[in-house]
TrEMBL record:
It comes from Oribacterium parvum ACB1. Residues 1-26 are annotated as: Disordered. It is a multi-pass membrane protein. It is found in: Cell membrane. Belongs to the BCCT transporter (TC 2.A.15) family. GO terms for cellular component: plasma membrane. Signal peptide: none annotated. This is Betaine/carnitine/choline transporter (BCCT) family transporter. The chain crosses the membrane at residues 35-55, 75-92, 113-141, 161-183, 208-232, 252-269, 281-304, 339-357, 369-392, 428-452, 473-492, 498-518. PANTHER family: HIGH-AFFINITY CHOLINE TRANSPORT PROTEIN, HIGH-AFFINITY CHOLINE TRANSPORT PROTEIN-RELATED. Keywords: Cell membrane, Membrane, Transmembrane, Transmembrane helix, Transport. GO terms for molecular function: transmembrane transporter activity.
């Protein structure tokens, strides 16, 4: 077995050398592209979209049935997986695994902490985070389960932190450590999900099992990408209505998609320099918006006090929140919220952790995970505590009937805009929010397009970037499905259900990658001791 692994390692090195030599030649580039990995999931999603358009009611009923079945019958699977991955992240960080440098033993980080943290934070569901920060408490206070707990505003804020905090980012950071180890320590040339499973799958990685894992991963990536625009683009369109009142929401949404595509395509083709610049600019815009709302909103003291209280409540009740399954089926809160969020973050684990792992070269695994929690979770919490408590303060102090506005309009987007219009210089605030969300979407799709481009190659040498044509192809391709889905609201809902259903098998792959990393990292540490 050891001889076989040594042979595979030698073949991988030779393959990397051969691919690097042919990287600049058109024929070499063409032969290195794996059309099946990208093509099969894309065709499957296009067929699903066609089915959604032709049979919207039937498709919605079927997918909703599957989604509800998974949420009800496999609640322990989703919730248990989330809690396990979070605890695993702590174990990895504070054990000897945390000392491993993602690169050469004495290599220094390529990016400063702020640049690295900005790229990491904006690679995730950043635009969605901003949208939900304003309004998620509105949805929770109307939930029977939250109402039964008493002090529903406090519990609503605590649950926003729980659903966007430690466990979701735990998915990202454990996989980021695994992918970073695979890329920068083992220097694997196949930058794919299946390659991270090689320590356990061994030869099966190159067969139908590995192929299936990669096709599933790209399918989940495309589905998750196509649906994320359905969350926050309506808010952007609602803001743009203030400037262009005569334009329809559909046309404004199309304009937003096209402009976002243009920005992130330009940034992507500029390479990592363009991606890092856009990520830092986005982070500065984000914190500028938060600071203005905190100081100009007239609720700074309330924001601080309620934030402190909500953090304490979330920490105190974290084990109960993480394991609540509603066994009697009384309120369906876990299926509607906790399981939904865990599944949605699991689908996004295809792109974001790969990107985080690739930019973490030179950092230890401990720095990657704990730094990720510090910057990623910290920025997320600040967003929810400032924006959410600001809109909550309008309701609590009777400055604006926020819940009543939502109940009458049934539009979170309209409700958020009315909350912002209370602020001084409201038009400038709306413009700043619009620019920030544009930047967040652009930076998120930068990372996704880069990862998708890497997936298209049969192999890539360490430090080698995908060809510009391949990156440009994915930059355009990733926007086509959202453009098509703008014309059918039911299809948006359906494809989101597909993303959630796709998380069920992705969960098993996440476990496989985690245990493969532990096995390979342990072997690496033994090799290092032997060398010393």
């Amino acid at each position: 077995m050891e001889a076989w692994e040594k042979k595979v390692g030698q073949e991988t090195v030779e393959e990397m050398k051969r691919d690097t030599k042919t990287a600049g030649r058109g024929e070499g580039q063409k032969n290195r592209i794996d059309y099946g990995i990208s093509g099969i999931p894309f065709i499957a999603i296009v067929l699903l979209c066609f089915f959604f358009f032709i049979f919207p009611e039937n498709s919605n009923r079927i997918l909703s049935g599957i989604r509800n079945f998974l949420g009800t019958e496999f609640a322990v699977y989703y919730l248990g997986l989330g809690l396990f991955i979070f605890l695993l992240s702590l174990y990895i960080s504070f054990s000897s695994y945390g000392d491993i440098v993602l690169g050469e033993p004495h290599e220094k980080p390529k990016y400063s902490f702020f640049t690295w943290g900005s790229m990491m934070f904006t690679a995730g569901l950043a635009a969605d985070i901003m949208f939900y920060s304003f309004c998620e408490w509105i949805l929770y206070v109307q939930e029977p389960y939250v109402q039964s707990l008493g002090r529903k505003e406090e519990w609503a804020t605590a649950y926003t932190l729980f659903h966007w905090g430690l466990i979701p980012w735990g998915f990202y950071l454990v996989l980021a450590a695994a992918f970073g180890f695979m890329l920068h320590v083992r220097k694997r040339s196949k930058q794919r999900y299946s390659e991270a499973c090689r320590p356990i799958l061994k030869g099966k990685t190159d067969g139908i099992v590995g192929r299936g894992i990669d096709i599933l991963a790209v399918f989940a990536l495309l589905a998750g990408t196509a649906t994320t625009f359905s969350v926050a683009t309506p808010l952007m369109a609602e803001i743009m209505k203030k400037v262009l009142p005569g334009v329809s929401t559909r046309d404004l949404t199309l304009l937003i998609l096209v402009l976002t595509c243009a920005v992130y395509t330009f940034s992507l083709l500029k390479g990592m320099m363009g991606i890092s610049f856009l990520a830092k600019a986005c982070t500065w815009l984000f914190y500028s918006l938060l600071l203005y709302i905190f100081f100009a909103g007239g609720a700074g003291n309330f924001i601080l006090k309620h934030a402190f209280l909500a953090l304490g409540k979330m920490v105190e009740h974290f084990p109960t929140m993480a394991t609540y399954t509603d066994p009697m089926g009384e309120n369906h809160f876990p299926e509607n919220w906790t399981i939904f969020y865990w599944a949605y973050w699991m689908v996004w684990c295809v792109a974001a952790p790969f990107f985080i792992g690739s930019i973490s070269k030179g950092r230890t695994i401990r720095q990657t995970i704990l730094g990720g929690y510090g910057f990623g979770v910290g920025s997320t919490f600040v967003s929810f505590l400032v924006l959410g408590n600001y809109s909550l303060s309008l309701e609590v102090f009777h400055k604006l009937p926020v819940v009543q506005i939502y109940e009458s309009s049934q539009s979170l987007y309209e409700t958020i805009v009315k909350c912002l219009e209370v602020l001084p210089l409201a038009p400038l605030v709306l413009l700043l929010l619009l620019l920030t969300m544009f930047a967040f979407y652009a930076t998120s799709f930068d990372s996704i397009a880069l990862v998708a481009s890497q997936y298209s190659y049969k192999s890539l040498a360490e430090g080698e970037e995908p060809g510009k044509k391949v990156q440009g192809f994915w930059a355009i391709l990733l926007i086509l499905l959202p453009l098509a889905l703008v014309f059918s609201e039911s299809s948006m809902v359906n494809l989101q259900s597909v993303s959630i259903i796709a998380a069920f098998p992705i969960g098993f792959v996440i476990l496989l990658i985690s245990f493969s990393f532990l096995k390979d990292a342990k072997k690496y540490m033994e090799e290092q001791k032997g060398t010393e």
